[in-house]
Specification:
This protein is an alpha/beta fold. The protein is about 45% helix and about 10% strand. Helix 4 (about 100-115) runs parallel beside helix 5 (about 130-140).
Length: about 210
């Protein structure tokens, strides 16, 4: 907490658990130098995630945070979503493979409506995300003007989610990179997304790795 020079910290794959996450959260509340923190694969769970999220509310320096592969569940995702509504410095958040669920994805979507600093959000490999999660994020993209990268690959999104995302892409002009590979859009969903992306961005959307 009293360190005056550390800006980059990678302690991924160390299984620090909830206890370690609580300790880091306490430090982040007062730390004024750390900008990049990688905590992926640490089994922090929902309680550890909540502690870190609470710390983000008051932290003014952290810009990049990865908590992928941490079993945070929907409650952990909701905690981070709530913190994003009050944090103005974080620009990249990774929550891949965390079982965020429909409630977690809805909360994250709501935070995207209000947050003005986040430019990269990775929430891939959350298989219970589905059409509900995609639709919630899609509605948020219609209002969000800051996000440049969104990763929602391997999220079990079907045609309904593809429809919502395609509609959002026709309104959103800030998103520059969208990874939606390995979902279940079907051919019709692929066509909708490809056309929406092409019309607004003049580029071809990569759907080469979708599930069939």
């Amino acid at each position: 907490a009293h360190n005056t020079c550390l800006e980059y910290l990678d302690i991924s794959n160390n299984y620090i658990g909830s206890t370690g996450a609580h300790a880091l959260g306490a430090c982040l509340k007062t730390n004024g130098t750390l900008r990049h923190l990688n905590l992926s694969c640490n089994k922090i769970g929902q309680h550890g995630a909540i502690a870190l999220a609470e710390a983000l509310t008051g932290n003014k320096t952290l810009q990049y945070l990865s908590v992928s592969w941490n079993e945070i569940g929907s409650k952990g995702a909701i905690a981070f979503a709530n913190s994003l509504q009050n944090n103005s410095t974080l620009i990249s958040l990774e929550l891949a493979t965390n079982d965020v669920g429909a409630d977690g994805s809805s909360a994250l979507a709501e935070s995207l409506r209000r947050n003005k600093s986040l430019i990269s959000l990775e929430i891939s490999h959350n298989y219970n995300f589905g059409d509900a999660g995609a639709t919630a994020i899609a509605y948020a993209l219609m209002e969000n003007k800051n996000l440049k990268f969104l990763g929602i690959q391997y999220n079990n999104i079907g045609f309904e989610g593809a429809q919502a995302l395609a509609q959002a892409l026709s309104h959103n002009e800030s998103l520059q990179n969208l990874d939606i590979t390995r979902n279940n859009f079907g051919v019709d969903g692929d066509i909708l997304l490809t056309i929406a992306w092409k019309i607004t961005r003049g580029e071809t959307l990569n759907l080469a790795e979708r599930y069939t």
